[in-house]
Design brief:
The complex is a heterotrimer.
Chain A: E1 3-11, H1 18-26, E2 32-33, E3 48-49, H2 55-61, H3 72-87, E4 98-103, H4 109-115, H5 135-145, E5 151-154, H6 160-173, E6 179-186, H7 190-198, E7 219-220, E8 222-229, H8 231-236, E9 243-252, H9 265-278, E10 287-289, H10 296-310, E11 316-318, H11 321-324, H12 331-345, E12 347-348, E13 370-371, E14 376-382, E15 387-395
Parallel strand pairs in A: 3-7, 4-5, 4-6, 10-11, 10-14
Antiparallel strand pairs in A: 1-8, 1-9, 2-3, 6-8, 9-15, 12-13, 14-15
Helix pairs in contact in A: 2-3, 3-5, 6-12, 9-10
Chain B: H1 2-15, H2 41-55, H3 65-68, H4 72-82
Helix pairs in contact in B: 1-4
Chain C: E1 5-12, H1 48-51, H2 56-71, E2 79-83, H3 89-101, H4 110-114, H5 119-128, E3 133-137, H6 143-156, E4 162-169, H7 175-184, E5 197-204, E6 212-222, H8 228-238, E7 248-251, H9 260-267, E8 274-276, H10 278-281, H11 288-301, E9 309-311, E10 320-327, E11 330-338
Parallel strand pairs in C: 2-3, 2-4, 7-8, 7-10
Antiparallel strand pairs in C: 1-5, 1-6, 4-5, 6-11, 8-9, 10-11
Helix pairs in contact in C: 2-5
Chain lengths: ~400, ~80, ~350
């Protein structure tokens, strides 16, 4: 059955809470648009899934002092993590052995890139020297949540949050924790915008996952966290279970630093492992929340891997990156929340902007929302460095 | 034309950090990708930037690079025809 | 629950520690703001095609990892897990500076691709065509310890038999100078140079003649100075160890005010052999992997190089070592090794 999920929190381009994200998904309302917060020469050439709150607004919402050294990655993370604990009705993290496992790729780069050339001369910017590293936002959030023990950050590119979530379950199963907040956060940055531009995989239009004419991804920013709790805690505290994390798998494609292999080997292995842990056959998966970044390479490779796993009995699938953009490290957590919402609502979210199936596979994602009885959802997150991770969520 | 080919060889060695190679090691018709010099898709992206920066040629689809970067000779011909710098 | 062993340890550091018969026989005194590692001849480990793209962290990491696997004649580890605090900072700075100085024009992808934290783990997997579990941790001074703990859980749960675990760090060129600037402005700041290096271990559930048992590892995000002694005591009690059974205490002293934690820890013991290492390795987020390497070597060779001794007499028989590291009062780790 897996470990129970008793709370979740999220902030993304389609909403600043679980409720708002749900409303957008049910209304097929995407959050991808023009870049607002970052000054870049490329703003006309890209579309992004931006959170519509400035750092000042986030600061106010979080009741932080006006002067602080949270990076945007940290601010987004704190919003989502706080919401997750609230959703789980946890007010005191010291009552059980509680951990915090976050993930990020950007870390403090959103501030580093703005101030690095002023560090030597402007004292007011120096507070951002120590915030560059990936663990900074994690530590700040852990401190605010009152979590003092097992706290860490995973950084495996776009599979990071999925890895954070599965680590949480493993630590509970191993008896090292009773409860754990898991997920990830990444903000938009000039660094990543330019980085993906050099790879020529960023689209200047709304991304079209799995479409034959897809031109590339839209970057996004977001944060999301789940609260996982052991059966003992769930029973003792009489918690409402939102869903179960019934399966997980981590494998490496070992093919290329950024491109995925032709036969999607890493993806295939990750999905296989997850099904094995969940003790499920492929035909028991009711919906797949695909990685589906809308790059020519990923969508083809992932499609081949999906066909290898599911054969002719392809479940309904979609990529919700057509709503939020590709939120890098946070993607696995965002899409975990969406997978759980799908189970709660018994509703499959559409793959926006799809028109023509890829000639190589002929696969068609669902293009409008579907109300359907579902029990098991599979979610994929694949990153640079061949890091492939799959999570399976099951109805409570 | 010979000058351009020489120039390209020097640039490729520098841009792609091919410390083990000298200009003499790269023949005009050697395959740059795959079995020849052994360059890969990341190198292709690097060369696309070089085309833009040094010769004013902009490729929008990375797949175009496959034909253009076949060999030094092919690349030199393409640049001669299309350069704006 | 299965026992967990360190079966080999390979280290690249500012000292002559890679591919050496001896163990810190001759050490060089470190001075200055930063210290680079003693780089091995990478050509024996990495092809020119790969070498041309790699910054030091990746070169050191891949080399140390390759040697560790070679030592144990392992071609396919069951998992590859790495830890790094700052990640591939050199390429990060390179790409960032290119953005700034070229006004976002004519940027090339290589340094962006090489800048992700998981580049080392990915490159190792690529070299070996290893499709197994692969993860990278980045939590300041417990980055390496988390990689080790992940391996411990895999092994204890029977999900793996041989795990490649490593910690690595590179200096970079820019952010480190600012960190140094802030440190030097503080009279109670870090006294050793900032350093870099890579250490890789094969962590296994299979006992060999080279095995040193990893008895336990604990990580704490926050411990107050008033609680540290309790934490240490509980850690030892959990492992049914008396204070007197600890033959040596290895701590990450770096000369700053937070060394106080180590003094408080040492106070618990009577006449313990106190060792330190950051005056040899320099300070960096994964320097504790150098510390663990010294512990492995000490227990394997039954010798303690003079250069490691901070205080106290050394015992002739060394069986159990306690390691403790923290950074600025945060991210504390305790490790117990036993021969």
């Amino acid at each position: 059955m897996g470990v129970a999920i008793t709370g979740m929190g999220i902030i993304s381009a389609i909403g600043h809470s679980v409720e708002e994200n749900k409303t957008s998904l049910l209304a097929s309302k995407s959050g991808i648009g023009n870049l607002r917060h970052i000054l870049t020469n490329h703003s006309q050439a890209i579309k992004v899934g931006e959170v519509l709150l400035s750092n000042a607004e986030l600061t106010r919402q979080l009741h932080l002092p006006e002067i602080h050294n949270y990076t945007r990655t940290g601010l987004l993370g704190l919003v989502a993590a706080t919401a997750a604990l609230e959703n789980s009705n946890i007010s005191d993290c010291s009552t059980y052995r509680t951990g915090f496992i976050s993930s990020t790729t950007v870390g403090g780069m959103d501030m580093t890139e703005q101030y690095i050339k002023q560090f030597a001369t402007d004292v007011t910017t120096q507070k951002y020297i120590a915030t560059h590293h990936a663990g900074d936002s994690t530590q700040k959030i852990a401190d605010t949540l009152g979590i003092n023990g097992l706290v860490t950050t995973i950084s495996t590119a776009c599979s990071s949050a999925a890895n954070a979530i599965m680590l949480g379950e493993r630590l509970i199963k191993a008896g090292k924790l009773d409860r754990v907040v898991v997920g990830g956060t990444d903000s938009l940055s000039k660094f990543t915008i330019n980085g993906f531009k050099t790879l020529m995989i960023q689209s200047d239009a709304l991304c079209a996952p799995f479409d034959a004419h897809r031109k590339g991804l839209n970057l996004g920013e977001a944060a999301a966290y789940l609260v996982l709790e052991s059966d003992t805690v769930v029973q003792k505290e009489k918690k409402d279970v939102l869903a179960y994390l019934s399966g997980y798998g981590n494998a490496n494609d070992a093919f290329h630093q950024t491109a995925s292999s032709d036969n999607g080997e890493g993806a295939f292995l990750a999905m296989q492992k997850a099904l094995e842990i969940a003790n499920l056959n492929p035909d028991q998966i009711d919906y797949i929340n695909a990685h589906g970044t809308a790059t020519p390479n990923n969508d083809l490779s992932e499609s081949i891997a999906l066909k290898r796993v599911f054969g002719d009995q392809m479940p309904d699938f979609s990529s919700t990156k057509s709503f939020t953009g590709h939120t890098l490290a946070a993607a696995g957590a965002i899409e975990a929340v969406f997978s759980i919402l799908a189970l709660q609502e018994q509703y499959l979210f559409p793959n926006l902007n799809f028109n023509t199936p890829m000639p190589e596979t002929g696969l068609k994602p669902i293009t409008s929302g579907i109300k359907k009885e579902i029990r098991h959802v599979l979610s994929n997150s694949f990153g640079f460095g061949g890091n492939c991770s799959t999570l399976i969520f099951s109805k409570a | 034309m010979a000058e351009l080919r020489q120039e390209l060889k020097e640039k490729i060695i520098e841009q792609l950090n091919l410390e083990e190679f000298s200009v003499a090691d790269i023949a005009d018709d050697d395959a740059l990708f795959g079995d020849g010099l052994g360059l890969d898709s990341i190198d292709a992206l690097e060369l696309i930037v070089m085309l833009d920066k040094d010769y004013g040629i902009q490729l929008t689809d990375p797949k175009e690079g496959k034909e253009i970067f076949k060999s030094i000779a092919v690349l030199a011909d393409y640049i001669t025809e299309n350069r704006s710098k | 629950m299965k026992k967990v062993y360190l079966n080999t340890a390979v280290n690249i550091s500012a000292q002559d520690t890679f591919d050496q018969e001896g163990f810190l026989n001759e050490t060089k005194e470190l001075s200055g703001k930063t210290i680079t590692a003693n780089y091995p001849n990478y050509k024996h480990y990495i092809t020119p095609a790969n070498l041309r793209r790699m910054a030091e962290a990746v070169k050191m990491g891949v080399t140390a990892a390759t040697q560790a696997l070679k030592n144990m004649a392992i071609t396919q580890p069951d998992a590859i897990i790495t830890g790094t605090g700052m990640g591939c900072i050199d390429d990060t700075e390179k790409f960032l500076n290119a953005i700034i100085s070229n006004s976002e024009q004519f940027l090339t992808p290589t340094s962006f691709i090489q800048s992700t934290h998981n580049t080392v783990g990915a490159q190792i997997a690529l070299n070996l065509k290893c499709k197994a579990y692969n993860n990278t941790y980045s939590q300041a001074s417990v980055s390496f310890e988390w990689a080790l703990m992940d391996a411990q859980v895999l092994l204890q749960q029977g999900e793996a038999e041989n795990v490649l675990v490593g910690g690595y760090e590179e200096l970079g060129k820019e952010i480190v100078t600012y960190r140094r600037m802030m440190e030097d402005a503080d009279s109670l700041g870090i006294q050793v140079p900032f350093g870099e290096g890579a250490t890789f271990f094969i962590v296994s559930s299979e006992k060999t003649e080279n095995s040193i048992e990893l008895m336990d590892i604990e990580v704490w995000s926050k411990i107050s100075t008033t609680s540290i002694q309790d934490n240490i005591m509980r850690f030892l009690e959990k492992n049914t160890l008396q204070l007197s059974e600890i033959d040596a205490l290895i701590v990450g002293r770096n000369g700053d005010v937070f060394d106080h934690y180590y003094n408080l820890t040492a106070d618990l013991f009577e006449n313990i052999t106190q060792l330190h290492y950051k005056h040899l390795s320099g300070e960096f987020y994964t320097a504790s992997s150098f510390g663990l390497w010294t512990a492995y070597e000490i227990l394997s060779r039954q010798e303690i190089p003079k250069a490691l001794i901070f205080k106290g007499e050394t015992k002739s028989n060394k069986h159990t070592i306690l390691l403790y590291n923290q950074f600025k009062g945060r991210d504390h780790s305790f490790i117990l090794l036993k021969r």
